[in-house]
DNA sequence: ATCGGTGTATTAAGCGATTAATACATATTT
DNA sequence: AAATATGTATTAATCGCTTAATACACCGAT
Protein backbone atom coordinates (compact mmCIF):
# COMPACT_ATOMS: atom_id res chain seq x y z
CA UNK A 1 0.00 0.00 0.00
CA UNK A 2 1.83 3.02 -1.22
CA UNK A 3 0.17 5.89 -3.02
CA UNK A 4 2.14 8.73 -4.46
CA UNK A 5 -0.16 11.67 -3.92
CA UNK A 6 -0.07 14.70 -6.11
CA UNK A 7 -1.54 17.98 -4.96
CA UNK A 8 -3.45 18.46 -8.13
CA UNK A 9 -6.31 16.03 -7.70
CA UNK A 10 -8.43 15.55 -4.59
CA UNK A 11 -7.12 12.90 -2.25
CA UNK A 12 -10.23 10.79 -2.35
CA UNK A 13 -10.10 10.72 -6.14
CA UNK A 14 -6.55 9.49 -6.07
CA UNK A 15 -7.44 6.82 -3.59
CA UNK A 16 -10.28 5.62 -5.79
CA UNK A 17 -8.03 5.61 -8.80
CA UNK A 18 -5.47 3.58 -6.94
CA UNK A 19 -7.98 0.94 -5.97
CA UNK A 20 -9.48 0.84 -9.42
CA UNK A 21 -6.11 0.17 -10.91
CA UNK A 22 -5.32 -2.47 -8.35
CA UNK A 23 -8.58 -4.19 -9.06
CA UNK A 24 -8.30 -3.85 -12.80
CA UNK A 25 -4.86 -5.41 -12.64
CA UNK A 26 -6.08 -8.25 -10.53
CA UNK A 27 -3.86 -7.38 -7.59
CA UNK A 28 -7.03 -7.13 -5.60
CA UNK A 29 -9.14 -10.15 -6.25
CA UNK A 30 -12.89 -10.68 -6.11
CA UNK A 31 -14.06 -11.04 -2.54
CA UNK A 32 -10.79 -9.91 -1.08
CA UNK A 33 -10.99 -7.78 2.05
CA UNK A 34 -9.65 -4.26 2.04
CA UNK A 35 -8.59 -2.17 5.05
CA UNK A 36 -11.14 -0.46 7.24
CA UNK A 37 -11.68 3.27 6.76
CA UNK A 38 -9.76 4.14 9.85
CA UNK A 39 -6.94 1.75 9.14
CA UNK A 40 -6.52 3.02 5.62
CA UNK A 41 -6.53 6.54 6.98
CA UNK A 42 -3.75 5.65 9.35
CA UNK A 43 -1.65 4.00 6.71
CA UNK A 44 -2.00 6.83 4.25
CA UNK A 45 -1.96 9.59 6.84
CA UNK A 46 -5.24 10.96 5.66
CA UNK A 47 -8.45 11.88 7.40
CA UNK A 48 -10.80 8.96 8.05
CA UNK A 49 -13.60 10.82 6.31
CA UNK A 50 -11.50 11.10 3.22
CA UNK A 51 -11.06 7.36 3.25
CA UNK A 52 -14.77 7.00 3.76
CA UNK A 53 -15.43 9.31 0.87
CA UNK A 54 -13.29 7.15 -1.37
CA UNK A 55 -14.94 3.94 -0.23
CA UNK A 56 -18.35 5.48 -0.68
CA UNK A 57 -17.58 6.26 -4.28
CA UNK A 58 -16.48 2.72 -4.89
CA UNK A 59 -19.47 1.34 -3.08
CA UNK A 60 -21.79 3.37 -5.28
CA UNK A 61 -20.08 2.07 -8.35
CA UNK A 62 -20.49 -1.45 -7.09
CA UNK A 63 -16.79 -2.08 -6.83
CA UNK A 64 -16.82 -2.98 -3.18
CA UNK A 65 -19.40 -4.45 -0.88
CA UNK A 66 -19.78 -3.74 2.78
CA UNK A 67 -21.64 -5.78 5.37
CA UNK A 68 -22.21 -4.84 8.92
CA UNK A 69 -19.13 -5.21 11.00
CA UNK A 70 -17.25 -6.96 8.28
CA UNK A 71 -14.37 -5.51 6.34
CA UNK A 72 -15.37 -4.13 2.99
CA UNK A 73 -14.59 -6.50 0.19
CA UNK A 74 -13.97 -6.26 -3.48
CA UNK A 75 -17.11 -7.31 -5.23
CA UNK A 76 -17.37 -10.88 -6.41
CA UNK A 77 -19.47 -9.85 -9.34
CA UNK A 78 -17.29 -10.73 -12.30
CA UNK A 79 -19.39 -8.57 -14.56
CA UNK A 80 -18.67 -5.48 -12.53
CA UNK A 81 -14.98 -6.26 -12.59
CA UNK A 82 -14.97 -6.82 -16.28
CA UNK A 83 -16.95 -3.64 -16.79
CA UNK A 84 -14.51 -1.69 -14.68
CA UNK A 85 -11.59 -2.59 -16.81
CA UNK A 86 -13.60 -1.97 -19.93
CA UNK A 87 -14.70 1.42 -18.76
CA UNK A 88 -11.21 2.50 -17.90
CA UNK A 89 -10.08 1.43 -21.31
CA UNK A 90 -12.95 2.96 -23.20
CA UNK A 91 -12.45 6.22 -21.41
CA UNK A 92 -8.75 6.32 -22.14
CA UNK A 93 -9.30 5.47 -25.78
CA UNK A 94 -12.06 8.00 -26.20
CA UNK A 95 -10.08 10.84 -24.78
CA UNK A 96 -7.06 9.97 -26.79
CA UNK A 97 -8.81 9.62 -30.10
CA UNK A 98 -10.79 12.76 -29.48
CA UNK A 99 -7.61 14.66 -28.74
CA UNK A 100 -5.63 13.56 -31.73
CA UNK A 101 -8.54 13.98 -34.08
CA UNK A 102 -9.12 17.51 -32.90
CA UNK A 103 -5.69 18.42 -34.16
CA UNK A 104 -5.80 16.37 -37.30
CA UNK A 105 -3.38 13.65 -36.40
CA UNK A 106 -3.74 10.80 -38.82
CA UNK A 107 -4.54 7.31 -37.63
CA UNK A 108 -1.20 5.97 -38.76
CA UNK A 109 0.67 8.69 -37.01
CA UNK A 110 -1.30 8.14 -33.84
CA UNK A 111 -0.71 4.40 -33.89
CA UNK A 112 2.98 4.86 -34.43
CA UNK A 113 3.33 7.27 -31.56
CA UNK A 114 1.47 4.99 -29.22
CA UNK A 115 3.60 2.07 -30.25
CA UNK A 116 6.81 3.94 -29.70
CA UNK A 117 5.76 5.36 -26.39
CA UNK A 118 4.47 2.03 -25.18
CA UNK A 119 7.60 0.11 -26.03
CA UNK A 120 10.06 2.68 -24.89
CA UNK A 121 7.92 3.47 -21.91
CA UNK A 122 9.21 4.24 -18.49
CA UNK A 123 7.22 1.63 -16.67
CA UNK A 124 5.16 3.22 -13.98
CA UNK A 125 3.48 0.12 -12.66
CA UNK B 1 -16.57 31.13 -33.33
CA UNK B 2 -18.56 28.68 -31.33
CA UNK B 3 -17.36 27.05 -28.18
CA UNK B 4 -19.31 24.38 -26.40
CA UNK B 5 -18.59 25.10 -22.77
CA UNK B 6 -18.75 22.42 -20.16
CA UNK B 7 -19.08 23.29 -16.51
CA UNK B 8 -16.26 21.05 -15.52
CA UNK B 9 -13.26 23.02 -16.62
CA UNK B 10 -12.64 26.71 -16.04
CA UNK B 11 -13.87 28.90 -18.85
CA UNK B 12 -10.51 30.43 -19.58
CA UNK B 13 -8.98 26.98 -19.91
CA UNK B 14 -11.59 25.98 -22.40
CA UNK B 15 -11.01 29.14 -24.38
CA UNK B 16 -7.29 28.46 -24.49
CA UNK B 17 -7.91 24.91 -25.58
CA UNK B 18 -10.19 26.10 -28.33
CA UNK B 19 -7.61 28.47 -29.71
CA UNK B 20 -4.86 25.92 -29.43
CA UNK B 21 -6.86 23.48 -31.47
CA UNK B 22 -7.73 26.10 -34.03
CA UNK B 23 -4.09 26.99 -34.38
CA UNK B 24 -2.89 23.41 -34.42
CA UNK B 25 -5.35 22.66 -37.18
CA UNK B 26 -4.26 25.65 -39.19
CA UNK B 27 -7.65 27.31 -39.06
CA UNK B 28 -5.87 30.19 -37.46
CA UNK B 29 -2.81 31.03 -39.46
CA UNK B 30 0.46 32.65 -38.43
CA UNK B 31 0.06 36.37 -38.12
CA UNK B 32 -3.68 36.26 -38.26
CA UNK B 33 -5.55 38.71 -36.07
CA UNK B 34 -7.85 37.45 -33.36
CA UNK B 35 -10.71 39.32 -31.67
CA UNK B 36 -10.06 41.88 -28.98
CA UNK B 37 -10.64 40.83 -25.38
CA UNK B 38 -13.88 42.70 -25.15
CA UNK B 39 -15.15 41.54 -28.48
CA UNK B 40 -14.44 37.93 -27.69
CA UNK B 41 -16.16 38.39 -24.36
CA UNK B 42 -19.23 39.71 -26.14
CA UNK B 43 -19.33 36.90 -28.64
CA UNK B 44 -18.92 34.18 -26.05
CA UNK B 45 -20.97 35.91 -23.38
CA UNK B 46 -18.17 35.74 -20.90
CA UNK B 47 -16.51 38.28 -18.68
CA UNK B 48 -13.84 40.39 -20.40
CA UNK B 49 -11.39 39.47 -17.70
CA UNK B 50 -11.90 35.84 -18.47
CA UNK B 51 -11.03 36.54 -22.08
CA UNK B 52 -8.01 38.46 -20.91
CA UNK B 53 -6.99 35.57 -18.72
CA UNK B 54 -7.11 33.22 -21.66
CA UNK B 55 -5.15 35.57 -23.88
CA UNK B 56 -2.61 36.11 -21.16
CA UNK B 57 -1.98 32.39 -20.97
CA UNK B 58 -1.48 32.18 -24.69
CA UNK B 59 0.74 35.24 -24.67
CA UNK B 60 2.94 33.66 -22.01
CA UNK B 61 3.22 30.51 -24.06
CA UNK B 62 4.23 32.56 -27.05
CA UNK B 63 1.21 31.57 -29.07
CA UNK B 64 -0.02 35.08 -29.68
CA UNK B 65 1.67 38.42 -29.88
CA UNK B 66 0.20 41.73 -28.85
CA UNK B 67 1.34 45.19 -29.81
CA UNK B 68 -0.01 48.40 -28.46
CA UNK B 69 -3.36 49.24 -29.89
CA UNK B 70 -3.23 46.48 -32.43
CA UNK B 71 -5.28 43.35 -32.39
CA UNK B 72 -3.48 40.39 -30.93
CA UNK B 73 -2.15 38.07 -33.57
CA UNK B 74 -1.18 34.46 -33.82
CA UNK B 75 2.59 34.26 -33.64
CA UNK B 76 4.46 34.00 -36.90
CA UNK B 77 7.12 31.87 -35.30
CA UNK B 78 6.81 28.59 -37.11
CA UNK B 79 8.80 26.84 -34.44
CA UNK B 80 6.30 27.75 -31.79
CA UNK B 81 3.46 26.53 -33.95
CA UNK B 82 5.18 23.26 -34.67
CA UNK B 83 5.98 22.84 -31.01
CA UNK B 84 2.39 23.46 -30.07
CA UNK B 85 1.11 20.65 -32.16
CA UNK B 86 3.88 18.40 -30.98
CA UNK B 87 3.15 19.17 -27.37
CA UNK B 88 -0.53 18.47 -27.74
CA UNK B 89 0.27 15.17 -29.35
CA UNK B 90 2.93 14.13 -26.88
CA UNK B 91 0.64 14.95 -24.01
CA UNK B 92 -2.22 12.94 -25.45
CA UNK B 93 -0.01 9.97 -26.17
CA UNK B 94 1.62 10.05 -22.77
CA UNK B 95 -1.63 10.10 -20.90
CA UNK B 96 -3.08 7.36 -23.00
CA UNK B 97 -0.15 5.01 -22.77
CA UNK B 98 0.18 5.65 -19.08
CA UNK B 99 -3.49 4.84 -18.57
CA UNK B 100 -3.57 1.62 -20.50
CA UNK B 101 -0.33 0.40 -19.05
CA UNK B 102 -1.55 0.96 -15.54
CA UNK B 103 -4.27 -1.57 -16.16
CA UNK B 104 -2.17 -3.98 -18.14
CA UNK B 105 -3.64 -3.47 -21.56
CA UNK B 106 -1.38 -4.98 -24.14
CA UNK B 107 0.04 -2.93 -26.96
CA UNK B 108 -1.87 -4.84 -29.57
CA UNK B 109 -5.12 -4.44 -27.74
CA UNK B 110 -4.52 -0.74 -27.31
CA UNK B 111 -3.69 -0.24 -30.96
CA UNK B 112 -6.76 -2.12 -32.05
CA UNK B 113 -9.04 -0.10 -29.85
CA UNK B 114 -7.60 3.15 -31.08
CA UNK B 115 -7.97 2.05 -34.64
CA UNK B 116 -11.57 1.04 -34.18
CA UNK B 117 -12.50 4.18 -32.33
CA UNK B 118 -10.72 6.38 -34.78
CA UNK B 119 -12.38 4.91 -37.84
CA UNK B 120 -15.81 4.55 -36.41
CA UNK B 121 -15.47 7.83 -34.64
CA UNK B 122 -18.23 10.37 -34.31
CA UNK B 123 -16.33 13.27 -35.76
CA UNK B 124 -16.30 16.12 -33.33
CA UNK B 125 -14.34 18.57 -35.42
C1' DA C 1 -21.73 -4.92 30.13
C1' DT C 2 -17.86 -2.57 28.69
C1' DC C 3 -14.56 -1.51 25.56
C1' DG C 4 -12.68 -1.17 21.12
C1' DG C 5 -13.44 -1.58 16.52
C1' DT C 6 -16.47 -0.93 12.60
C1' DG C 7 -19.50 1.82 9.02
C1' DT C 8 -22.28 5.96 8.49
C1' DA C 9 -24.39 10.62 8.64
C1' DT C 10 -24.43 15.54 9.44
C1' DT C 11 -22.42 19.67 9.70
C1' DA C 12 -18.87 23.03 9.59
C1' DA C 13 -14.46 24.81 8.29
C1' DG C 14 -11.12 25.95 5.20
C1' DC C 15 -9.08 26.69 1.05
C1' DG C 16 -8.13 27.59 -3.59
C1' DA C 17 -9.30 29.15 -7.81
C1' DT C 18 -12.19 31.42 -10.98
C1' DT C 19 -14.68 35.11 -12.14
C1' DA C 20 -16.05 39.82 -11.74
C1' DA C 21 -15.63 44.88 -10.77
C1' DT C 22 -13.11 48.74 -11.45
C1' DA C 23 -9.68 51.72 -12.83
C1' DC C 24 -5.72 53.28 -15.65
C1' DA C 25 -2.91 54.40 -19.66
C1' DT C 26 -2.60 54.56 -24.44
C1' DA C 27 -3.83 55.30 -29.16
C1' DT C 28 -6.82 56.17 -33.01
C1' DT C 29 -10.57 58.55 -34.91
C1' DT C 30 -13.93 61.94 -35.40
C1' DA D 1 -9.88 67.52 -27.60
C1' DA D 2 -13.39 64.28 -26.97
C1' DA D 3 -14.87 59.92 -27.62
C1' DT D 4 -14.17 55.34 -28.28
C1' DA D 5 -11.63 51.19 -28.29
C1' DT D 6 -7.72 48.88 -26.98
C1' DG D 7 -4.56 46.12 -23.46
C1' DT D 8 -3.41 45.82 -18.65
C1' DA D 9 -3.33 45.74 -13.57
C1' DT D 10 -5.29 45.43 -8.97
C1' DT D 11 -8.47 44.08 -5.96
C1' DA D 12 -12.63 41.95 -4.38
C1' DA D 13 -16.42 38.69 -4.46
C1' DT D 14 -18.07 34.33 -5.22
C1' DC D 15 -18.36 29.72 -5.40
C1' DG D 16 -17.59 24.92 -5.13
C1' DC D 17 -15.33 21.30 -3.30
C1' DT D 18 -12.45 18.95 -0.29
C1' DT D 19 -11.36 17.99 4.09
C1' DA D 20 -12.20 17.83 8.91
C1' DA D 21 -14.87 17.49 13.32
C1' DT D 22 -18.19 15.21 15.69
C1' DA D 23 -21.63 12.12 16.84
C1' DC D 24 -24.39 7.89 16.35
C1' DA D 25 -25.51 2.97 15.94
C1' DC D 26 -23.83 -1.55 15.64
C1' DC D 27 -21.22 -5.70 16.77
C1' DG D 28 -17.77 -8.83 18.79
C1' DA D 29 -14.64 -9.88 22.22
C1' DT D 30 -12.96 -9.43 26.74
Automatic annotation (TrEMBL), chains A, B:
UniProt-recorded Gene Ontology molecular function terms: DNA binding; DNA-binding transcription factor activity
Pfam family, one: GntR
Recorded superkingdom: Bacteria
This protein's UniProt keywords: DNA-binding, Transcription, Transcription regulation
HTH gntR-type domain sequence ranges: 9-77
Protein name, as recorded: GntR family transcriptional regulator
Organism: Aquisalibacillus elongatus
Amino acid sequence: MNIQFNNRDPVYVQVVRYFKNQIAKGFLEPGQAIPSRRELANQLKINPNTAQRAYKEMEEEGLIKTEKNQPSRVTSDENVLQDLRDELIVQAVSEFVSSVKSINVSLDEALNLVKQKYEKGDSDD
